Amino acid sequence: MEREAELQKERLNNIFKELIHDLEVTDIEAAKFLLIFKENGKVKDHVTNLLCPKEDSICEIIDLLQKIFSDRLKLTDLEAQKLEDDFVKASEISDKYLKNIEQLEKILEKENEVFERNLKEQTLKEEEYDLKIKTLKDNFDMDVKKLLYASKKELEESTKRYDEEAEDLQKQYKSLEREYEKIRSLHMREEKELRKTKDKLEKDVEKTIERFNFETKELEDLRMKLDEQKIEYDALMLEKELEEEEYRRELGAQFLLNYMARKIQIHWREYVARKSLKKKKRGKVKSSGDKKSA
């Protein structure tokens, strides 16, 4: 972009130099012209349009320059000397810029040479990389072919083995199917028998439940009767206990009476015996006294 701008500025300077030459002005007048060109805003606008060319831009600039020349070209000697000095300074600055431009061009040439060397080295590296990539691609293709061949062979062997296993499984399936049919028919017969047995058991259970309910009801009735009888039994047992207690008291009293009677009898007999013994002793004493007295 900077290079293109420099070229456009150079092109513009050439255009103005040709215009000054065609107008047949002196160097001082040319300096005045350049000063006017630098100071006037409308000229700058037209220069901008020239950098991005439009139709009639040059014609408009020429018309504007003619008007500016007619209004401002008449200057005093002092102003002319000042313009000449400014022009000399501008020339010196321009030469300095030209030298800088030449130095920049040399630097750019060196950088361009370095860039070309780097580009060449980069190109060689890219060619080397392309060769390596091609080698890797060829090796990859070879490895892929080997893998495909090995996979194909393994797939064929696996398919053959699968077919053999599938055939064995088919035979086993048929055998298991026949065995299943046998077991199924046997289970159906057993299920039929079990269903009959189940129906019979359900009927027996229903009868048993009915009998159980009936017997439970009877048992409840018996329990109620037993409760009633227990009340009567408790009353009878209480009465019996009272009677037995009365009987035991009577037996005790009778036993006590009998015991006392026996005791009384014993004591009475002993008393009678002692009394008779005393009488006998008194009778013996009297008889012995009578004998003595006689």
TrEMBL record:
InterPro entries cross-referenced by the UniProt entry: DRC10 (IPR042815)
Keywords: Cell projection, Cilium, Coiled coil, Cytoplasm, Cytoskeleton, Flagellum
Native organism: Brassicogethes aeneus
Family: Belongs to the DRC10 family.
Compartments where located: Cytoplasm, Cytoskeleton, Flagellum axoneme
Database matches in PROSITE patterns: IQ
Entry keyword annotation includes Transferase: no
Name the record gives this protein: Dynein regulatory complex protein 10
Function: Component of the nexin-dynein regulatory complex (N-DRC), a key regulator of ciliary/flagellar motility which maintains the alignment and integrity of the distal axoneme and regulates microtubule sliding in motile axonemes.
Sections of the chain in a coiled coil: 94-246
